[in-house]
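We modelled the chain as a single entity of 193 amino acids. Its sequence is:
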Amino acid sequence: MDWLYALTLGYLLGSIPFGLILTRMFGTVDLRSVGSGNIGATNVLRTGSKTLAAATLVLDGAKGFLAVWLATHYWPTTGAFAAIGAVLGHCFPVWLGFRGGKGVATTLGVALALAWPVGLVYAGVWLVLLAVTRISSVSGMVAAMAAPVAAWLTGHQDIEWALVVIMLLVLWLHRANIARLRAGTEPRVGSKG
């Protein structure tokens, strides 16, 4: 049952909606009424606060990292289940009617905790593509696809399956973004659109 404990722990930590909490604490608009309605850092940026967006990014990553770290501390070899739980919790938080974010920052945290080389590849791909394209969805999706490849190349095949599950979830949650990319209407970071 250790895997179930880890999955549940990951879900509970992952479901903490830091973006919503921070925007409420600092009196900005209801995050769910802005842009995509998601609770992640990209949507927090649409409220006009780079500071709150950066804090959301860090905290969403930290909760993923903490979930994996705690799970492996108490139930060794269950980190992959905690990772999946954390991303599921972020994307489908029970407290918000199962409507959360798209899991990109939380995936960074779990990747770093599962195997830091994989996390570094994920972060590098994400940051480089974001700098080049300025399209958040592209950088997040490609980083998610790079993670299982990085796990395989760096000898971390034991976590590759979990990263594939997370990648598929991230891609599925970005299906509207994919449609906008195909139509040429996906907004860039910092644009008014």
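As a brief sanity check on the tokenised model: The chain has a mean pLDDT of 92. The radius of gyration is 16 Å.
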